[in-house]
Write a structure and sequence with these properties.
The complex is a heterotrimer.
Chain A: H1 5-16, E1 20-25, E2 28-33, H2 38-48, E3 57-59, E4 88-91, H3 95-104, E5 111-114, E6 131-132, H4 143-162, E7 166-167, E8 171-176, H5 180-193, E9 200-202, H6 204-210, E10 218-224, E11 228-230, H7 232-245, E12 249-251, E13 256-262, E14 265-271, E15 274-276, E16 280-283, H8 289-295, E17 303-313, E18 324-328, E19 342-345, E20 351-354, E21 358-359, H9 370-381, E22 392-403, E23 409-412, E24 419-423, H10 429-449, H11 475-484, E25 491-493, E26 498-499, H12 500-506, H13 516-523, H14 535-547, E27 566-567
Helix pairs in contact in A: 3-7, 3-10, 4-10
Chain B: E1 2-6, E2 15-21, E3 24-29, H1 34-45, E4 48-49, E5 52-57, E6 64-69, E7 73-74, H2 78-86, E8 89-90, E9 99-101, E10 111-113
Parallel strand pairs in B: 5-8
Antiparallel strand pairs in B: 1-2, 2-3, 4-7, 5-6, 6-10, 9-10
Chain C: E1 2-9, H1 13-23, E2 29-32, E3 48-50, E4 59-60, H2 61-72, E5 78-80, E6 84-91, E7 94-101, E8 104-115, E9 119-121, E10 130-131, E11 137-139, H3 140-148, E12 152-153, E13 157-161, H4 165-176, E14 180-186, H5 195-202, E15 209-211, E16 213-219, E17 226-231, E18 244-247, E19 250-253, E20 257-259, H6 262-266, E21 291-293, H7 304-320, E22 328-333, E23 337-341, E24 344-346, E25 353-360, E26 367-373, E27 376-383, E28 392-397, E29 408-415
Parallel strand pairs in C: 1-2, 1-8, 2-5, 8-21, 10-16, 11-19, 13-14, 13-19, 14-15, 22-29
Antiparallel strand pairs in C: 3-4, 6-7, 7-8, 9-20, 16-17, 17-18, 22-24, 23-25, 25-28, 26-27, 26-29
The chains are: A alpha+beta, B alpha+beta, C alpha/beta.
């Protein structure tokens, strides 16, 4: 494989005038130099690498702001893991890591699974649109295409086993202009070749009968039956619980800080909870997968984080969409690497609009902005004219871990023997997760077999009983459940009709949960119209009682997010007169 | 000296215009009733306010009990009153309206409970 | 299945009054409340100013609730506490409610319904507050619950967005309990709360009020660290370049109340876009026969005394309800009004003294409000001033107006000479 080094350097010279240069080291293209800002860094990477590249690119170009970025504080330290020597150290508990953990436990392996946040699915896995993609814009020959196709097929079975709601709704791509319709028929052989069967062309009448919310100006469309929708963090939590049930040891608040590598082998991994000596390491660390690769001295790719914002609309907006649709061929949808986004009817009955795509140097910048919500709406309004910002009940942002090749990296280490990467995961990572997990488990089995092949886990159970969704049960079943346990009859969140029983269940599952947001992600209090205004205090009190902690110790999310600062009567009161004169006159 | 302020006696919230000379109120306009005039006089010479707060409890049940002054305190002594009330703990059952402190800070103003409370098993919410 | 003449959903001040109103007629009445105790939002309103009209006394909210709960005791109404109305369906000429509680799931039948479901607070995201999602951003009502019911302080150094009454009350409460309130920021050019609250909650404590300002961004990873405030233009859009950062650990929002009408909408009850509550006639019956609404679910009130008034009337009307055709006259109001309630008059009922509530859209000086029935002036009243935060009540005698189905009643506002 020849890397066109001269061609790349010419392009770099043209853009950066010699400040940025490319070299090839150990078969990997490396960029070095300095750019004017982060956008310049990304531009350099894009000149060197593209989805068509057959080589890997590492981008070490610096920029003026680089030194100022604050690294996220490392959580508490102890020695609880010191001396451990697991078979596998799995880094990262997003959907990729959770799927891998679940798959690995088919075998009798000593799996130590670490996650630096206090809960699973706190990064991209809880901040995406939940789409299970058919793979419309994926290209044969890419890892994205390969794992998406396999993963998509597995979704029904995986979700059924885990008790996770999944709707295979299908997806509509809608086009302007009646003249498009005959052209769409010409695309059908392409979809078939791509492995998508059952794709249909729809005319004006059929399209609007199926999705009345679609703009009148969009006259025809393509329907992809393979598309679906799932709750991405619900699935991650379910996979994690199943993995733990089957023997995985999940250690939250655990951050990998360094590794000892010798002769191409990882000998030790340092964490804030001590040093461990795994036989193999699996890198599923999301936006930090490059950092892990560097620690493992297996640095052959670079991440350029890309933010995407989604908005959730009130359930009343449900009239706007039944499945998933987006408008194509309008100027608004011509964005690179954004997957277009769309209008999605979520599994919980809300409407989701988004996402957009904005390059950012910040790996953990989850802040939203009014501009990105507005931009998202502008874009999607071409397809759905009924979109109203006043229907918005919340919005959120996620960060994609994009490589410059814009593809997944699912492979053993290039220079280091005992590492396997599940890196560069961006869309369609959610869809691909079950298939990526199978491949990674296969690779892990292979690496472990070099010394001792793992035995099958005879007690492996791929199923998991979910927390009952009580409000969704038919009356008789609901009545019976309440008779058995009256806590299921006491409604705490009145917007989403969530009972005390379900909240207690969320606090008692195999993956530890003790925060307000953790309860919210598991059983939904706080996700409705009032956004936790009424139920927040109640959920806080339930957590305090269940965990035997004080109200001030109950956190919204991570360390430092306590909501209540002190009891009201503790402090010394102000004496004298703040804001008035001594005798009280105005 | 002219002073202008809002009457807080009733929901009307009349805007009162007063003239004060040598510490006495010589004119009040803008009030829709006699209570407004009385309020204006007091406000310019010795303003008072009611105080509504909570006191801590002991023994299970609701963790705090709402209370208020049965009359009004000198406006400048509100934080002093808060300190006294924050040091107070209710331990025996009370009914709405019961007097908890007959005379707060020697002002002649009583403090009453504004809800029932009893130290029974903690209520559900 | 248990059968009731009237089932009331929501045991706050409106529902309590409705239960009393229904029981006075002898109707078999059930009051359903989702919390463990009656009183609704009044349980956390420990401040005074309640009941000046109803009882001639200056009570705290919890005392006001206590009075009504005492009146309810022994009047014969059934109550179901810690019970949630999961569903209401029309059944024949009545309704079937599915109730969920610790003791199980049961259905009850009602000839008439009173929805006294109150309102909820507008959230941070509904006013486009962006940035991170740290702890420390909460609505004033939630802060009130923490402080007054749980005895916990959610703030040490806070900014309040919105000069609605709840925000003003909480500015005082937080200050009395030892917190530092940096200021109250209001996007509109005039305050949203009652004048007397500006006076006794802000001016008394030297807390500054900044009108035509809003909060645009919050920052902080796990706990709020600072907010960005900016000046806004006449359309309430932030003016670039006017941003200021304020260090604080809490942002308390008092940016409006929204009537809760999920159950009403599920029954097909049409809402008034101006009040966000149902359209109703003078007996508080909505456009769906047999469904009555009162209190804050109908329109956001300032005085609980008027809530009780509408509740008692709605409860009594629900108790008397028999299915019959109505001859509805429409009530409208000109552009000077925020809204008028009721929006319909049932002309088949005997015409008499009818209570209307309205709000002015903007601050006005001396104003004459006139009411016309089919073009003829029926009554007029002059107000020295009108302000949007202050709801007005006008009693009009409709007898002799000769109203019929299709009549039009119109409220107009005009400047009065001094």
């Amino acid at each position: 494989m020849r890397i066109p080094l001269q061609k790349i350097n010419r392009a770099l010279k043209k853009r950066f005038g010699g400040r940025v240069q490319a070299v090839v080291e150990r078969g990997v293209l490396v960029l070095r130099g300095s750019a004017e800002d982060w956008d310049g860094v990304v531009a350099a990477g894009r000149l060197a690498a593209s989805p068509k590249s057959r080589w890997y690119t590492v981008n070490e170009v610096t920029w003026p702001g680089a030194a100022q970025r604050q690294p996220k504080p490392v959580p508490q330290t102890d020695e609880s893991l010191a001396g451990r020597a697991p078979d596998v150290l799995l880094i990262g508990a997003g959907v990729t890591g959770a799927a891998i953990a679940r798959e690995l436990m088919r075998w009798n392996v000593d799996l130590l699974w670490v996650e630096k946040e206090h809960d699973v699915a706190l990064h991209a896995s809880s901040r995406n649109d939940g789409m299970v993609h058919p793979g419309v814009d994926l290209h044969k020959g890419t890892a994205k295409y390969h794992y998406n196709r396999l993963g998509n097929r597995m979704y029904g079975g995986v979700c059924a086993a885990l008790g996770v709601p999944f709707r295979r709704t299908g997806q509509y791509l809608c086009f302007k202009g009646r003249a498009m319709r005959p052209l769409l028929y010409f695309t059908l052989p392409y979809w078939k070749w791509l492995g998508l069967s059952g794709v249909r062309v729809l005319g004006d009448k059929a399209l609007h009968a199926a999705e009345p919310g679609v703009d009148e100006a969009l006259h025809c469309g393509l329907f992809f039956p393979q598309a679906g929708i799932v709750c991405p963090y619900g699935l991650t939590i379910a996979m994690a619980e199943n993995a733990v049930q089957n023997g995985a040891h999940l250690s939250l608040d655990t951050c990998v800080t360094g590794m000892d590598v010798e002769n191409g082998r990882i000998l030790a991994v340092h964490t804030n909870r001590g040093t461990v000596r795994p036989r193999i390491v699996i890198n599923a660390a999301g936006v930090f997968c490059e950092d892990i690769a560097q620690m493992a001295q297996d640095h052959f790719f670079s991440i350029h984080p890309r933010k995407g914002t989604n908005a959730i609309l009130d359930k009343k907006a449900k009239r706007m969409v039944r499945t998933i649709y987006s408008g194509m061929g309008t100027t608004a949808t011509k964005t690179v690497h954004s997957k277009g986004g769309g209008i999605v009817s979520t599994v919980d009955g809300n409407v989701l609009v988004g996402p957009d795509a904005v390059e950012t140097p910040e790996k953990e910048d989850f802040s939203t902005s009014v501009q990105s919500v507005r931009a998202t709406f502008e874009k999607q309004r071409h397809a759905a004219p009924a979109l109203r910002e006043s229907d918005i009940i919340t919005y959120f942002t996620g960060v994609r871990a994009a490589t410059y090749e814009e593809d997944f990296i699912i492979r053993p280490g290039m220079f280091t023997e005992n590492i396997i990467h599940a890196a560069g995961i961006q869309s369609p990572g959610l869809t691909a997760a079950p298939a990526i997990a199978q491949e990674v488990a296969r690779l892990a089995y292979g690496q472990l077999s070099a010394t001792t092949p793992p035995a099958r886990n005879a007690a492996y159970d791929p199923t998991r009983r979910p927390i009952p969704h009580v409000a969704g049960l038919p009356d008789e079943a609901r009545a019976a459940l309440i008779r058995q346990n009256p806590d299921y009859g006491e409604i705490v969140c009145r917007c989403e009709e969530v009972s005390r029983g379900e909240i207690l269940d969320a606090l008692r599952r195999p993956v530890p949960c003790d925060t307000v947001d953790g309860v919210k992600r598991r059983v939904r209090p706080g996700m409705g119209r009032c956004q936790g205004g009424f139920c927040g205090p109640l959920v806080t009190a339930i957590i305090a009682e269940e965990k035997g902690i004080s109200l001030e110790q109950v956190r919204k999310s991570g360390a430092g997010s306590a909501q209540l600062l002190r009891p009201t009567k503790q402090r010394e009161q102000k004496t004298g007169t703040e804001g008035g004169t001594e005798d009280g006159t105005l | 000296m002219k002073r202008e302020f809002t009457c807080i006696v009733c929901p009307n919230g009349c805007r009162l215009h007063t003239e004060v000379e040598n510490g006495a109120v010589t004119s009040v306009t803008g009030n829709r009733c006699p209570k407004g005039r009385d309020f204006a006089e007091k406000e310019c010479t010795a303003p008072t306010r009611s105080l509504c707060t909570t006191v801590k409890t002991l023994g299970g049940g609701a963790p705090v009990l709402p209370v208020r002054t049965a009359g009004e305190l000198p406006k400048g002594r509100l934080f002093e009153a808060m300190a006294v009330l924050n040091a107070y703990t209710q331990t025996v059952p009370v009914y709405c309206g019961d007097v908890l402190i007959p005379d707060l800070l020697g002002t002649g103003c009583a403090v009453i409970a504004t809800d029932d409370w009893a130290p029974e098993a903690a209520e559900r919410k | 299945m248990e059968r009731y003449d009237v089932v009331i959903v929501g045991g706050g001040p409106a529902g309590l009054a409705a239960a009393l109103g229904a029981r006075r007629t002898g109707a078999k009445t059930l009051l359903v409340e989702r919390e463990a105790r009656l009183g609704g939002i009044l349980k956390q309103c420990i401040h005074d100013g309640f009941g000046l009209l109803r009882f001639g006394e200056r009570l705290s909210g919890c005392e006001y609730a206590h009075r009504y709960i005492e009146m309810l005791r022994g009047c014969g109404a059934q109550t179901a506490l810690l019970t949630f109305v999961s569903r209401i369906e029309k059944s024949g000429e009545g309704f079937v409610l599915t109730l969920v509680g610790r003791e199980g799931l049961r259905k009850v039948e009602a000839r008439a319904l009173v929805l006294s479901t109150g309102c909820r607070e507008r959230t941070a995201r509904q006013v486009s507050i962006h940035g991170t999602r740290p702890a420390g951003v909460l609505t004033a009502g939630t802060a009130q619950h923490y402080i007054n019911r749980m005895g916990e302080m959610p703030a040490r150094r806070c900014v309040i967005l919105g000069s609605g009454d709840i925000g003003l009350i909480m500015a005082r409460r937080l200050t009395l309990e030892g917190a530092q309130v940096l200021g109250v920021y209001e996007a509109k050019p005039t305050p949203s709360g009652l004048s007397r609250n500006i006076s006794q909650c802000l001016e008394d404590f030297g807390i500054p009020l900044y009108t035509s300002h809003t909060v645009t961004r919050v920052s902080g990873k796990e706990r709020l660290e600072r907010v960005t405030v900016a000046e806004v233009d006449a359309r309430m859009r932030p003016i670039p370049g006017t941003e200021q950062e304020l260090e604080c650990d809490s942002l308390i929002l008092s940016v409006g109340l929204i009537p809760e009408n999920e159950l009403a909408e599920a029954l097909g009850v049409p809402l008034d876009a101006r009040t966000k509550g149902p359209l109703c006639d003078q007996s508080y019956m909505t456009l769906v026969p047999g469904v009555f609404v009162c209190g804050n679910a109908l329109h956001v009130n300032d005085l609980v005394d008027y809530v009780s008034e509408s509740g008692e009337a709605a409860g009594a009307a629900a108790a008397h309800y028999v299915p019959a055709a109505r001859g509805l006259a429409e009530v409208s109001a000109d552009g000077g009004f925020g809204y008028v309630v009721p929006q319909r008059i049932d002309t088949t009922k005997p015409a008499g003294k009818t209570t209307f509530f309205f709000r002015s859209l903007a601050e006005r000086g001396k104003t004459r409000v006139r009411m016309l029935a089919d073009g003829r002036e029926l009554c007029k009243k002059t107000y020295m001033q009108l302000k949007p935060p202050e709801m007005e009540r006008m009693v009009v005698d409709l007898s002799g107006a000769g109203l019929h189905a299709g009549s039009r009643l119109t409220f107009v506002m005009e400047e009065a000479d001094t």
